[in-house]
């Protein structure tokens, strides 16, 4: 089972496994580069020796040039391969995390700020790349160079090496402590940067509200506070990072001083040749780069590990298919659902059977609801705000699962249907439908990109969009702007209806727009809904009387229960709440419109309803 399915942790070992081959080559090249580097002081020692003996200089010079070139070429190639692996790993991690996010339950998304998720997928993964690039191969190769250098130095002069290591050990201990603190600091900083991303997203997604509330100043200050937090914690990381390389440098400088003092005195007393001393000093010199690299890589590794902790949380996010993180919300819900197939009448498409449901650990919202939805016709859900109407749609689309009882489609528990099948059979149009930037056609085709031209035209016709599209500057190819801003509210909803119709669903769920539509748009939408309901089930949360009055059946929802059901006339005659809703839920404007047009249209006078 892959990490994606199991919700397991991101492990560096697993991440680099697909790139083992390329990494092995990179490390082998690194070893060659390290050997070429390690041979250079010997070559220089040879050169010094040859100069001392007045011998031919060409051989040591040619060897040295060869070693320099080999070192540079192989080192460059190795660095490219390692960087490439880092990029590949980051791409894989981003792809996996994006998949987890797209398949996460809607509840998980409700509970996590999208800006923070964005920061994790985009920027935390970059830290991971730096850690992998710097830490993995670079660290391995640098450590090899350090080890190789030390081995040669032990052969050259064990006493001098002992003194060198002693001077370096204090620096190494401090480096280790700094690196440990760096991880905590980096984790804190990543959290603050994520919070900044979340707040920025919050502001940008409510830009109109901010403007009409004259809150630009306030929001900027609020974001400024977040930026200060990110700045402060970032400084913490920077300080610790900045201390790593100098710590190693100081250790090296002290060891240089010690080696020079002790070495020169041994050369003076004849205990060591000048060539040996030169080689030893050069080896020490050559240790500088890898030691500094190891120390900075250690810092980057710690930051990468801090990022991995945050990426892990995304990886374990609860999934709609049930592969869930430990203790996540989705895991705790829906435990008692699914009792297999149940028998429903031939005319029944969907059925709620004694459904109880509450969001997460919150109070119960639906209290044992039972009702049927026939295969065709319009079922209108009406009821006071907060009574549970949208929650019914949430359970029909399986964004959530009942705590007990069953929701069935054609007799099968929706929890047992494959999600793509369920979402293909049940189309859902939100009250404020999401329109993606792109053209009208792209938006309509979004749920079924392979639909034929004829199917597309039919969906457009059914959604009563023909005139709207004809009036657009580029017809179907008109760009709708960010969030469909170039379309009106009613047009956006009809585009969303067409999008769902193109999937040819058995049932269309519609959270009717509450925005005021002009009477033409309202009539068009009403006709659209009724046209669609002739051949399939339509369940609409009805906000407009015109929809309610013409519904084939109306369910009156109150306090999480179905209080009454029937047609408009039946409910007017029998249900007090329905009468109240008819009286109060309709806007004054609509009532006036109904009053003034009652004699010219078939729509019943609302005042007379009031009196009923
Ligand atoms: N995602 C959620 N998490 C927690 N509680 C929720 C969530 N969505 C709705 N609720 C709660 O569930 C109850 C029913 O909400 P629901 O949205 O189903 O009502 P509604 O009848 O559709 O209301 P409205 O007509 O105002 O849209 C409310 O008390 C609401 O606060």
From TrEMBL:
Topology of this chain in the membrane: Multi-pass membrane protein
PROSITE patterns hit by this protein: ABC_TM1F, ABC_TRANSPORTER_1, ABC_TRANSPORTER_2
SMART domains named in the record: AAA
Gene3D superfamilies: ABC transporter type 1, transmembrane domain, P-loop containing nucleotide triphosphate hydrolases
Keyword Cytoplasm (UniProt): no
Region ranges (Disordered): 325-346, 586-612
GO cellular component, one term: plasma membrane
Spans through the membrane: 21-41, 61-82, 136-154, 160-179, 242-268, 280-301
Keyword Mitochondrion: no
Residues of the ABC transmembrane type-1 domain: 25-303
GO molecular function, a single term: ATP hydrolysis activity
Annotated ranges, domain ABC transporter: 350-584
Protein location: Cell membrane
Basic and acidic residues bias locations: 586-596
Keyword terms, alphabetized: ATP-binding, Cell membrane, Membrane, Nucleotide-binding, Transmembrane, Transmembrane helix, Transport
Official protein name in the record: ABC transporter
